[in-house]
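Deliverable D4.2, example record:
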Amino acid sequence: MALEVQEYVRLVGGALRGLVTRPVYRHDIIEQFDLIGVGSLTVVLLTGFFTGAALASQSGLTLDQFGARPIVGRLVSASMIKELGPVLTALMLTGRIGSGIAAEIGSMVVTDQINALRALGTDPVRKLVVPRVLAGFFMAPVLTVISDFVGIFAGWIVSRFQLQVATGLYWSSVTDALYIQDVQQGLVKPFVFGFLIVTIACHVGLRTSGGTQGVGKATTIAVVAGSVAVIAADFFVTQILLRTIY
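Output generated by the structure prediction step:
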């Protein structure tokens, strides 16, 4: 365990050095932005839509007990932006890109392509890890914002046609509930999640051994470790933000 943490810290240090020193593989960076960002758009849209719809439906039933159905928009927007949007988007990204990165890099390790890169004088961390870290770090917040908007829109559909809440009342409730601190919290978390997901997947991929069976095992470990890291980081980041921005 201590060895894995040490190797992970070394990988993160190498990736951070690769961000500020040459050479820069621009083509690989653009390719990863497309794969991680645009490629994950469908699953993020579906997740955000059905999460917002389910949240509005359940919240409406609960708020009815207190005669507070008109404020369902407030609950949907606060929940999506502060908590559900960032966390569920990160978990979807862990399943999609975390597993893909671990499998891809793990396959390169067991087929000696990583050693071939080193023999050619190319740093595998700079070539493989840095583009993925940049893409994960910057695209996770973008995808989270999209998920938030789609979730709130889905909440409006349910509120308008199922709960019979007036459109103007719903959207005024949404805007009244949001404070700048809530938006800051919802935007800070995805940066942390995106960085953790990609670096953990890259670390697991580079530590793969045991042929094709090892690749399958590495993929599973990357998803499990990434998901646990997201949930744990959500708690710690929330505690830090509550003490600093509120």
